[in-house]
């Protein structure tokens, strides 16, 4: 084979165009001829290099590699030529397949209809990530059969795509999704009880499933993770749930203390991937869970910590003195905000923080709130003083509102006393006690005095004075102290580690807003745990999807992806031909640009096939 140059001249302008082709000599009945093997376009290589390129292309076409591949210019020219060659071959193949698959019918256009419209886009993403995480093999290793694996996938992907209760998931499987068409087993007519029972089965193998998922995610997204983030949240039940031992009254993080609660403890790594989860009663004390979690960290992780001990990061809700001592006793590195008011020890430093601390800001957004940090000692443990303008504004607004309401309520009580509607000292003291309970963070900064009449039998007036310590509170607004065993790090590095806690907060946000975590309708404890565990399994899919996109520079969240893909659907077109036969053609719709973009980035292909069914009708 060799390269020939062809010249074409524009008759009007006289401009000459040069193209190059790879040709070979062949024998024909008419004599030797040249056969064009490949069009090369216009080559930029000097003519002295054409022989090398021809040899490289000849070797590639025969499935071999030439030594001239080491020449970068030759290799790039060969890559470009082969890409064009393969494109033309695919185009020719596609055209031949298109023509061979053509089938024409005469149909009554007045009787063309569509039916059984089902969503497939978000389900297809969930299904492909399910397979990528080897979910099916993990469940098979736990003793699940093929039908149970298919049902488990439908329930978990259903929680990802259409979050809700198990009853809502059952209705979705039966009537609203095309997911059942691409599963390994037919579950299209699954019963309602089967959905509840598969949740029970998943819960039975919770520890093994979480550990296997953790191993798979570490393999798919290899990165040495040295941070484990720990936090708790709770959610509420609908109904009184008297028979549910997990449903207990407590302080709701969703302002639903009027309902029974259940608590979820979650450990995630710095990328947001779950390590494991634990479910507790709704009135569970947060600090009391920590020893149990540390024990599980060792048992569930087996030999994970032979090479390193992960740094435990947690907020002040859990970081009591006893838990801090437990971390030290077990030699865990840590980054925490201690539960006690440690910032009071540094009032003098915080008073001049904006003048003397290191400033963390974003030059691109100069109007954004700044953070001021300072490392105060280098011994173990080290401490970093932090003043956040954003936190300062938030706390000032909250304090101002509480203080306003506190003084207004005392003012109303004072008016009741002045108008002689309430006079007995014990009743006034009772009302004051309730106010102090309602506004504990503000009431402690006020001295409240009840003035009695001469006989001491009635309250004549109420006076209140703000304490001097309220000024100290103002200085410490927006301030916090990070304590860490990483004394080798600087203030900025320590602050960055602490702020990875946003990952566990994001996990809770996804569970509650995107994955049907709340509310809970179950009246049995095991069904409650099964419901929550399904949401956690769905979160494994969600964080994998978002991580794969983020690695390609796509910052879309799952809620946006789900919305974008909701228009990718599957339906059946029904029509009647001239001979009276009814044709049902079931197929997926044509992908729109937004569908193609997401599917390409996630390397997803639609495995569903076009199905054509024909039946005879005597109605026409």
Q: What are the segments in which pLDDT stays under 50 over at least 5 consecutive residues? A: none
Mean pLDDT, nearest integer? 87
| Spatial arrangement of strands, main beta sheet | 7-6-5-8-9-15-12-11-10
Determine the fraction of residues in helical runs and give it as a percent range.
40-55%
Say how many strands there are. Answer: 18
Structural class: alpha+beta
Radius of gyration: 35 Å
Portion in strands = 15-25%
Give the distance, in angstroms, between the N- and C-terminal Cα atoms. 65 Å
Shape: extended
Oligomer: single chain
Query: Biggest sheet, open or closed, and with what strands and sense?
Result: 9 strands, mixed
Total DSSP helices = 21
How would you characterize this protein structure?
Strand 16 (569-576) and strand 17 (581-588) form a beta hairpin. Among the domains are: 2-100, no CATH class; 341-484, no CATH class; 564-616, no CATH class. It has 21 helices and 18 strands. The model has no long low-confidence stretch (mean pLDDT 87). The chain is extended, with a radius of gyration of 35 Å. The strands form 4 sheets. Strands 7-6-5-8-9-15-12-11-10 form a 9-stranded mixed beta sheet, with helices on both faces. The chain has a 4-stranded antiparallel beta sheet with strand order 4-16-17-18. A 3-stranded antiparallel beta sheet has the order 1-2-3. The chain is an alpha+beta fold. Helix 3 (121-132) crosses helix 19 (525-550). Helices cover 42% and strands 22% of the residues.
Describe the structure concisely.
The protein is of the alpha+beta class.
